[in-house]
Amino acid sequence: MGLSVNGVDIDDSVIERELPHHQGAANPLKEAVHEVVLRTLLLQEAARLGIQGEDDDARVEALLACEVRVPQADEAACAQYYRNHPQRFTNGEMVEARHILFQVTSSVPLELVRATAESVLEALRAAPERFDELARQYSNCPSGAVGGSLGQLSRGQCVPEFDKLLFRLGEGQLAERLLETRFGLHIVQVQRRVDGRLLPFEAVHGQIADYLSTAAWQRGVHQYLQLLVGRAEIAGVSLEGADTPLVQ
């Protein structure tokens, strides 16, 4: 495919061997190419610096350990993260919710689906007691058969955008706007809330420190790879905006 890194050609067979590791990606070939190019850059840099290892993985690991230095998360940083993200350290928080799903398909224009959903939402604002009836009539989710009920949900059980909305709504509150997810458009209502218990800082300090240190390390590696990419001669692919799967 005409791919080279700093004048060194990369054979298609290398990409083919990497490809099976990225079958879950949106674009497996693109991810495989990026991975191979980034690994090649790292191995070239390890060779330039004379860094040894028993295999390629060991050489890459030794290079990153030598070149990427990030500070450990201190007490103040951990405490600030704890204060800013209490929901992450709350046990037992739960909501009972229901929704009406308007599925978006290629056979129905999005504008028509949205107009229908907006009209149903307007009807619910005027008469909230009709939720069960309208869910049974309109919802494209199996839950429509039971009035849209999703039962009891804990944090993390739903897709992020749905989860975020659920735990922002008050008890009995109907979301003011349609929620859009990969499943379609949703009308959402929280029927009941159970507040959880915030774990003490001392109990989660180690977890927070590990998380912050890992996040800092990943940012450091990403910046280091950007530096290597910026000064490299890469032909056959653009790495602009590329992720750094080597460290995920």
Q: Quick gist of this model?
A:
The chain is an alpha+beta fold. It has helices at 12-18, 28-49, 56-67, 75-84, 110-126, 131-138, 160-166, 201-231, and strands at residues 3-5, 8-10, 90-91, 94-102, 149-154, 179-181, 184-194, 197-198, 234-235.
What does this structure look like?
The structure is a single chain. This protein is of the alpha+beta class. It folds into 2 domains: 116 residues, no CATH class; 103 residues, Roll (Chitinase A, domain 3), CATH 3.10.50.40. It contains 8 helices and 9 strands. The strands form 3 sheets. A 4-stranded antiparallel β-sheet has the order 5-4-7-6, with helices on both faces. The chain has a 3-stranded antiparallel β-sheet with strand order 2-1-9. A two-stranded antiparallel ribbon has the order 3-8. Strand 6 and strand 7 form a beta hairpin. The longest helix has 31 residues. The mean pLDDT is 91.
The strand order across the widest sheet is 5-4-7-6
| Count of alpha and pi helical runs | 8
**Number of separate strands:** 9
Q: Which sheet architecture does the biggest sheet show?
A: 4 strands, antiparallel
Report how far apart the termini are: 27 Å
**What share of residues are in beta strands?**
15-25%
Shape estimate:
flat
Rg to the nearest angstrom?
A: 25 Å
Give helix and strand order, one letter per element, not per position: EEHHHHEEHHEHEEEHE
What is the helix content? 40-55%
Q: Whole-number average pLDDT?
A: 91
Overall tally of domains? 2
Q: Given the helix and strand composition, which structural class is it?
A: alpha+beta
Low-confidence stretches: none
